[in-house]
Amino acid sequence: MSRHPHRPLAAALAAALAATALLLGPVSPAYAHNVLRKATPAQDAELKKAPTRITLEFLQKLNPSFTTITLSDADKQQVTTGEPEVSGTKGTVTVDTPLANGVYTVAYRVVSKDGHPVQGSYKFTVADPTATAEPSPSPVASEPAPTPSATPSAEPTASTSPAASAR
pTM score, two decimals? Predict the structure, then answer.
């Protein structure tokens, strides 16, 4: 008679579970497509001061020839930035014009080590209490500019002067 009749079954079950855990465990990101790890400003950030630089950090090294980072405003108008500066896993662009209060979208496209393009975007908000709101179009004049008027002038002309017709 065996003292532990279920021991071989329990050992086999434990071995099967361990093998399954190894197979289903986390896949190393080195074999996957590139992924955005960190962004400054961060996704959905509400900033009290407009950024002058945007930095994106990825899991894999970036190829400067295939790295694009753009910035657009709430009206989907592109905001002028510098060319991406790439250093290892980081890509940075400088913001060339001061940003007004509002929502902005950062979009990126990079190429993974495996040659696949990876793209994405995220939004952040500038809410500087000391800044103005989003720029508005130039004010439209409420009154038209003065034009030569059709009202009679104080100086008589040859065609309207009674004295001219009496001569």
Answer: 0.61
